[in-house]
Amino acid sequence: CATLNIEQVRISRFIAATRVSMVVGYRKDVDWIDSAAIDLLLFDRLQEYKSMHRFWEHFRGRYRDLISLTGLRAFLR
User: pTM for this one?
Assistant: First the structure.
């Protein structure tokens, strides 16, 4: 499900209006098994970090190929 296949300005406005630390989603349709795998990894790793910037830096480095395959995107405040 391509939930983040939208203009970045819309995401930036959402982040500013809601003051969330991070928005994560997919920019393209993705196989449900692939998305389930990366979602489970994401939820597991999120528990380890207070800083979403540090989290994403680590996650992106560790799972670069899976992120590329699924089209996962993250936008940080």
Answer: 0.83
